[in-house]
Design brief:
nine-stranded antiparallel β-sheet; Membrane-bound Lytic Murein Transglycosylase D, Chain A; 363 residues; 15 strands; Glucose Permease (Domain IIA); alpha+beta; 16% helix
């Protein structure tokens, strides 16, 4: 028998075959998806396992106990406790009473004020004698420490709240409202000897009694001629240059700044025995002890309407009438007089303007 030859397949003969394969595949995939959907819907829900409960742990015949309902009676607060939280911050109430503080060696008004978070002026206004002469601050002195910034008035005969407010630049309503004054808002009566705190208050003070001395005349002023360091007689000598240099090596303060009402000078930093220099040319018109808190004091008259004063010295190198030139050594720093530590108290005075702020002139 003769073998029949195999017909040659052309590309056009493949298309029916490929189409048949595609249909078969689609039918198979659809059947699989249908089977998976049926299985998921028929499967039982899965319940998460939990640990054994009190009810499941009961033995046969036992009854699960019932929970008693809460009492309708109010709970006694004394029977309720809360564990202490070690990190709990307890808010401090503001102080409203006056504390006492005893000055120790090395204390300054600035340092004391900082200890109690007060302004330095409040230390003055809380202690009347310091307000008139802050050099009275010395070890052993007991001070009133006010609870807030302001001033203190110990009620005297004839005082009224209106008068106190006016003298201390305060406000009557604020005085009454301050809890530390313990005043009845409906009938604010005050009595002699009572402490009254004036919130934000301050008061005018007495000017320091620096000796008034000139090179061409004797000590002047009531009560000033008896000063031990006063110089008598007419003196001649160098005239100032109208320029003023720093009288100490340090050009910064260690205490009080200039205040025309309470401290008409600068407390310049200077250790015990530090050199003190003449700020300008002139003649010494006061050399020695001052009874008004300055201790060992030198005053130089510059012959042009200006004078400079150098207080609390431990040593004085020049006597009355001595000619002095700018920058010349005149003494050593100390803590004599009413002073709580070594420094130089420096003042400037002009015949026309009185005491002036040294910051405006030192260079």
């Amino acid at each position: 028998m003769t073998e029949m030859p195999t017909p040659k397949t052309t590309p056009s003969n493949w298309w029916p075959t490929l189409a048949g394969y595609g249909v078969a595949i689609l039918v198979a995939v659809g059947a699989i998806l249908l089977a998976l959907s049926y299985t998921a819907s028929a499967a039982p829900a899965i319940t998460p396992e939990v640990g054994p409960t009190a009810a499941s742990s009961l033995n046969a015949g036992e009854v699960f106990p019932t929970i008693a309902p809460l009492s309708a009676e109010p709970v006694d607060p004394s029977t309720v406790f809360r564990l202490a939280e070690p990190d709990t911050v307890v808010q401090e109430r503001g102080r409203v009473t006056i504390e006492k503080y005893t000055v120790v060696r090395g204390d300054t008004v600035f340092g004391i004020a900082a200890k109690f978070n007060l302004k330095p002026d409040t230390i003055l206004w809380g202690n009347a004698e310091l307000a008139e002469n802050i050099n009275l601050l010395k070890p052993g002195k007991e001070l009133n420490i006010l609870p807030i910034d302001g001033a203190l008035r110990v009620v005297q005969a004839g005082d009224t709240l209106e008068n106190i407010a006016r003298v201390f630049h305060g406000n009557v309503d604020e005085i009454i409202a301050f809890a530390g004054n313990d005043l009845d808002p409906s009938d604010p009566q005050i009595k002699i000897g009572q402490n009254i705190i004036i919130p934000g208050g301050w008061r005018d003070t007495v000017t320091w009694s620096l000796p008034v001395v000139g090179r061409n005349n004797t000590v002047s002023g009531a009560g000033r001629s008896s000063e031990p360091g006063a110089c008598n007689g007419n003196y001649s000598g160098p005239t100032g240059t109208f320029t003023f240099v720093w009288p100490a090596n340090n050009h910064y303060l260690s205490g009080w700044d200039y205040n025309p009402n309470t401290h008409p000078g600068l407390d310049i930093a200077a250790g015990l025995g530090a050199p003190i220099y003449a700020s300008d040319n002139g003649v010494v018109v006061f050399s020695g002890w001052s009874n008004y808190g300055y201790g060992q004091l030198i005053i130089i008259d510059h012959g042009n309407g200006w004078q400079t004063a150098y207080a609390h010295l431990s040593q004085i190198n020049l006597g009355c009438g001595a000619a002095i030139y700018q920058g010349q050594l005149i003494g050593l720093a100390g803590s004599t007089g009413n002073s709580s530590g070594p420094h130089l108290h420096f003042e400037m005075r002009n015949d026309t303007y009185g005491r002036v702020n040294p910051w405006d002139f030192l260079r």
